[in-house]
Amino acid sequence: MRLSLPVLFTAFLFTVNPLQAQVTNPGGCGTVGMTDWFKWYADHRDQIIDERGGDTTWLYVPVTVQITGTDAGAEYYNLELAIGALHNMNQQFRDARIRFYMMPGDPFRYLNNTYWHDHDWGGGSDLINSNRLPNRLNAYVVKNPAGNCGYSWQDAIVLGKSCSGVNNTTWAHEAGHHLSLPHPFFGWEGESWDYSQPAPASIGGWNVEKTDGSNCYQSGDRFCDTRPDYLNYRWNCNQNGESVTVQHDPDSVAFRSDATLIMGYALDACANRFTSEQIAAMRNNLMTEHSEYLQITDPLQEISEDEPVELVAPLDTQYVQYNNVTFSWNPVPNASLYTVEVGLKENMLPRFIWQTVYNTTTLTVTRNIPNNRLLYWRVRPYSEWDLSKQLAPQQVGVFRTYNFAATNDLERNVLASLTPNPVSAGLPAVLQLTADDNMDALISVSDAAGRRCHFESVKLHPGENLIEIPTANLNAGIYFVLLQNELGTILKKLAVTE
Ligand SMILES: [Zn+2]
Questions:
Q1: DSSP letter (8 states) at residue 136
Q2: Which candidate, 356, 460, 454, places its Cα nearest to that of 416?
């Protein structure tokens, strides 16, 4: 389990229950305990390593990323970020000769459920057990994993959106738990301690690891190539890659924790590696407890570096209907996932569209693209196997947006919407006007018989303008809201109810 910084202090309270639940609940939180598999491994590792020898084959782990959203399907973690997070994990696991790839034919799923998206431990358990898929690593990305950055539990990993940014170590940390690794500070989870004092010989019923290595296989995380570490909160590192906080072992020997370990709680920027003994444990876990993951023994096809995505349309400053644009491109050999970006500048910033599609070479967009603009777009190719094309150079297409449905220049230059509609008498209706330029206009409201009920002049600014239409003096019925200037007119019908 990894705690996010903002909840550093409160997370302490959050994690007390699952710790205890784990004791009474088989299959509880693997991230705070030591799994039965790991205890078996730690007790038999000499024999296991003798039998297997120095196995150097690559191990390939399929993953399905399950991204939650609200009941209404909002707030998803961006799919290209998920692809990037797996690619980043592959760098972090390279020394372990473990590579993650997306499950062919089932690389990602979206789950619309607010109870899962922003969950306590009950919601997390329900999320995992309702959706866990066989023969792969299940990685759930949610808004709030029970107050943590992430956790590994019930044979799945759960990651928080806000801790899943570029170059995070959250994913590798939780995958490390999933493949059996305890925290280096094992035994200290949930404890509080004055680190200026010598540590006790045991804490929470576990031996405390000494700096002289005399008890390293029996204490802490039961690895000897991870040094003692008692720090159970997120901490920053010094320039030597060690903790700022000095601790004292049971023999009063002072030491600092190793910040480079992904399984510790040093901040993401400090951590980058697994040790040889950790790697041996993870590989053995894959070959035994998770052997069903090992479905392929040879790499699949990569996407060539020399094949940028060839755009088909829209190109060459072609005009398109601003709220109904279909982007199309030619397929790239071995690619199955394509990320489409649309932006105001050639660097795609600000970015209006950032969407990854699967098994198709078109994307139709009906919202979020501004009208009357010169815009840029590009496409990046990925596949379930090849998650690496974030920086591959791509062709950039240029197009213009326009409102072909407009019947006059005012409609072409101003987008209008009126909400709520119908509106209850007495509550204001809001006329939202998105304008291209500064302009003056008149607004009038008339009833069905043509009698004027309201009139005002307004100044519109480029961008969004919100204008309240008062309804306090209107009887129930249909009204006409007219926006007018020298460019033309926009007419909206407004229904007022009792
Ligand atoms: Zn952890």
A1: S
A2: 460
State the distance from the centre of ligand 1 to the C-alpha of 46, rounded, in angstroms.
26
- pLDDT at position 7 is 34
Q: Each residue of 100-136: b (16+ CB within 10 Å) or e? A: bbbbeeebbeebbbbebbbbebebbbebbeebeeeeb
pLDDT digits (tens, 9 = 90+) for 34-55: 889 999 999 998 888 777 666 7
| Helical packing angle, 121-131 and 10-24, nearest 10° | 50
479 touches 454 (CB < 8 A)? no
Q: Is the dihedral of CA 14, 15, 21, 26 positive or negative?
A: positive
The rounded distance, in Å, linking the Cα atoms of 387 and 381 is: 9
Distance 356 CA to ligand 1 centre (A): 30
Give the pLDDT of residue 29: 31
149 CA to middle of ligand 1, Å?
9
| CA of residue 387 to ligand 1 center, whole Å | 25
Q: Distance from the CA of 35 to the center of ligand 1, in angstroms?
A: 13
Write out pLDDT tens, residues 159-214: 999 999 988 999 999 999 999 999 999 999 888 899 999 999 999 888 999 999 99
Residue (of 227, 145, 225) closest to 185 by Cα position:
227
400-369-397 Cα angle (round to 5): 45
Q: Hey, what are 44's tokens?
A: 């038999």
Q: How far is the CA of 33 from the centre of ligand 1 (A)?
A: 10
Distance 397 CA to ligand 1 centre (A): 44
1 CA from centroid of ligand 1 (Å) = 3
Tell me how far the alpha carbon of residue 400 lies from the centroid of ligand 1, in angstroms.
Answer: 49
Q: What is the pLDDT of residue 246?
A: 96
CA nearest to 172, candidates 118, 100, 73: 100
Q: Which domains does the chain have, with CATH numbers?
A: 5-181+283-292 (3.40.390), 311-402 (2.60.40.10), 409-497 (2.60.40.1930)
Residue 67 Cα to ligand 1 middle (Å): 21
Name the token pair of 266.
Answer: 């040093």
CA 6 / ligand 1 centre spacing (Å): 16
- What is the distance between the alpha carbons of residues 47 and 340, in angstroms, rounded to a whole number? 51
Cα–ligand 1 centroid distance for 291 (angstroms)? 23
Two tokens, residue 241: 């890659």
Q: Are strands 429-435 and 414-419 parallel, antiparallel or unpaired?
A: antiparallel
